[in-house]
Amino acid sequence: MNAHTDSFTTDDGRTIGGTVLDLRNITLRFGGVEAIKNISFDIREGEIRAIIGPNGAGKSSMLNVISGFYVPQEGEVWFRGEKRPQMRPYQVAQQGVARTFQNIALFEGMSVLDNVMCGRLGYMSSNILTQGLWWGRAAREETENRESVERVIDFLEIQAIRKTPVGRLPYGLKKRVELARALAAEPKLLLLDEPMAGMNVEEKEDMSRFILDVNDEFGTTIALIEHDMGVVMDLSDRVVVMDYGRKIGDGTPDEVRSNQEVIDAYLGVAHD
Amino acid sequence: MPELRTVPEYLDRNAETFGDAAAYREKEFGIWQEWTWSRARTEIEEMALGLIARGLEIGEHVAVIGRNRPQLYMSMVAVQCAGGIPVPLYQDAVGEEIAYVLGHCAAKFVIAGDQEQVDKVIEVRDRIEGLRHIVYLDARGMRKYDHSDMSSMEALRETGRAEPRAEMERRRAQQTGATTCVMLYTSGTTGKPKGVVLSHDNIVATSVNSAAFDDLRQSDEVLAYLPMAWVGDFIFSVGQAMVTGFTVNCPESADTVMHDLREIGPTYYFAPPRVFETQLTNVMIRMEDAGRLKKRMFDHFMAHAKHVGPRLLDGKEVGTWDRFKYRLGEVLVYGPLKNTLGLSRIRVGYTAGEAIGPELFDFYRSIGINLKQLYGQTEASVFITQQKDDEVRADTVGTPTPGVELRIAENGEVFYRSPGTFQEYFGNPESTASTKDPEGWVATGDAGFIEESTGHLRIIDRAKDVGKMADGALFAPKFVENKLKFFPEIYEAVVFGNGKERCVAFLNIDLTAVGNWAERNNIAYASYQELAQHPRVIEIMRGHVNKVNASVAEDEMLSGCQVHRFLVLHKQLDADDDEMTRTQKVKRRLIEEKYADLIAGLYGGADEVYTETEVTYEDGRKGKIRATVKLVDAEVVPVNAKPKVLEAAE
């Protein structure tokens, strides 16, 4: 498979660059179950790439492969032009990949601010002792990183809940805090696992706006899994469609929409 | 020093006399950022020069729209320095309202706070002739816009820095006290908004007089959180701030106002009764959940404060023991409470715009907050009457502000003449003539009277709303509505009955207060609509209406205004649906037309009415809500059998 090296400008003025992440012939098995069957696709710099498919299609597994949580039995992951060796998730994070989770994974008892500060962990090198004593490098680092965090808080308009414990927040806001934490890491590649699940129309509109703004303002490459077709078709530049671990479609929203196999998968045609 | 007559002249004085003192503060990225007076002057001049470079001519209107931010306040002064006229708009105004105002004043420039405001302007742009340029403050999301006739505030100032000052100096030299300082659109409970033209003389004289009245100083702090388009905010955050040089603090966002209030601790504070009410409701709700000891301590000392506090504030005689106990209360209850409310440092607090409930008013005064009332309107540059420090009462609005003359017409309407009296309604000589007579007397549109013993003005209602019942008795809806609204559970009330035999009322519940009550009583509800129609909620409302009727019956003139039947509306009255003004005043006539079926039901004796109502969502889309609204009978006190005692019921 050839990686893209060219770049072009979209109708709305964003620049889409060469391939950032290239997945080549990935196969993932859990015992006898093949969750992902020989799938290849790429993500280009600056684009919003959606992964869609019916329940159990293997979308979240795919995201877990990208984030390093699952190691595929076959296939290669190429990140920024280099073949990625087997890595622990934290090493992947250090490379500049951040993610949110389908079922929110925040520290419920901690404030929004502290949760978002966790996203900066990779940028701090002081040890637990100096941090506990708020001394020397620890104090300096926290001030520097707090500034980045405050910018994210401002960006996502969550100033009013800065000091509120996450456990007291409604679901829609928790999702936004999770996005804040991921953004605080200033990722090159942002993975969003169903960022709009369980939200009402207004919250979805807000979240869509934020996703577009993140992509636009910071040029962050985004891969997202989402069930709401309207949202996916509006947001994304390209869509990968999965069904039963196979890739059944790949292209622009329009191409995917007119793909017969995709229509069948969504309307439910009997599999043999 | 020569007499200063314009806002830009005061800016120069402030920058020269106390250039290092804080002029503006804004919380951004979690930290309070500060502009000193000299930095403010530099930035204002850069903006002004930038505007001139972009082609602003003398006397042209520049609309300013956005939330309270230092740069927007500065931009208004910059417009003045460049010879233009600032026109602040309500930031939550929808497209149509913006189109009307921009078209009416033929705005040439718009200074917008952020992308949201820019979008609203662009949406209506083709309908506004002559709009040349949009300047925006927050660059977020703006990168992709066509910048041929749009620039960021940064870029505008960049241009200004390279521009020679001569033209600005020339324009400023032409300005006198008679030059227009600002144009403010009145919210208008009827018809289209009108542009009120206020001169520098109006603003400066009013600010100087009112600042002297309350001894406002350069060291004072205010929190600017009320709409910039409202005349009060212009007087407090621009007029008085320029004249005295105090600091204007801007909150981080609309949601953090209460938190920012606590951090700043303003010394001079204005809030409409609704804000005070919300604060008190929150305190009471939290006290319900407090521990038993705290609760008993709170109740005990609050009872004492109610008894002693207002007298202490008025400087009246109070016994030694009571004084001591009040001090103890200050340490244990009042002090911490004021701190929580962000009102620890208040020297002067004002409320206006609506009548304030006596209990609410006394609550704040009893814990030692110098809360007073004033009466004013846009056409007067706010101040008509104010209460002196030792003459504060809940039921009057005080004596005339220095420089103001008052007159009551035959029909009870209040007239005034003052140095703050507006120049004209922009482009509307007929309205100007019908409001302001050749001698300078202005009709307020409010009916009221001056108390003989004290000289205080008392306002009864809007003059045009005061009517007659079928039997000839006086009908003053607001009098009854205010009594209803003093109950924390009732958010809004509208009373009908002009020309009828009996009065009926619409009520809106207060979702915070009633919602909390519902929670404590294990009442489940899914929506405002469901809670509003809950039988037990209606029963509470009935109790309140009955109490109000008993109290109304005691007023000799207005006893006919008792509410015979009422309903709890299935939706909240909303400015987006054109049922209220942006300053939260009900639009009586429009509501009467819109809900004619419900009113007919109330008068017709039905038990419930099915109704469909069109609603507008925040983004401008429309939808329908359907509901079956229950109609309820209230107890009415027979007027001829009313008790002779005229003491207030509560």
From TrEMBL, chain A:
One of its GO terms (molecular function) is ATP binding. Keywords: ATP-binding, Hydrolase, Nucleotide-binding, Transport. Residues 21-269 form the ABC transporter domain. GO terms for cellular component: plasma membrane. It holds the Pfam family BCA_ABC_TP_C. It is an enzyme of class 3 (hydrolase). Its EC number is 3.6.3.25. This is Sulfate/thiosulfate import ATP-binding protein CysA.
From TrEMBL, chain B:
InterPro entries: AMP-binding_CS, AMP-dep_synth/lig_dom, ANL_N_sf. It comes from the Bacteria. It is an enzyme of class 6 (ligase). This is Long-chain-fatty-acid--CoA ligase FadD15. Keywords: Fatty acid metabolism, Ligase, Lipid metabolism. Gene3D superfamilies: N-terminal domain of ligase-like. Residues 11-426 form the AMP-dependent synthetase/ligase domain. Pfam families: AMP-binding. It comes from Jannaschia seosinensis. GO terms for cellular component: membrane. Its EC number is 6.2.1.3. One of its GO terms (molecular function) is long-chain fatty acid-CoA ligase activity.
